[in-house]
Amino acid sequence: MQTFTSGSAVENEPEQNLADDFEHWPNEPATRNDLRILATRIDRRFDKIDSRFDKIDARFDKIDAQFAMVDARFTAQKSELQNAIRRDMYGFAAFLIFATTAVIGAIKTFII
Questions:
Q1: Secondary structure (H, E, C), the chain
Q2: Which domain holds residue 80?
Q3: Is residue 102 domain-resident?
């Protein structure tokens, strides 16, 4: 089996650019040096892709930190809201008890 150099092995590269790096033209068998050059180019592409993933991971870390801050704010607001609702409920319950007692006392005085 012979390996031939061709532009299809590396994406987004014209065949002429690959042929400039190789010792032979694409219709001739590839040498070890040709394959090393091709492997190096492919490896560089993967390095670029890895660095892009690292950048994306850093962005996701920033977004996660922002979500954590928003979550902390919501937690604080939730506890404040619960305390305010309880305070208002106890105040209203006290008002109802006082009003009911006053009405019952008024009814007892005028009716009995």
A1: CCCECCHHHCCCCCHHHHHHHCCCCCCCECCHHHHHHHHHHHHHHHHHHHHHHHHHHHHHHHHHHHHHHHHHHHHHHHHHHHHHHHHHHHHHHHHHHHHHHHHHHHHHHHHC
A2: 7-111
A3: yes
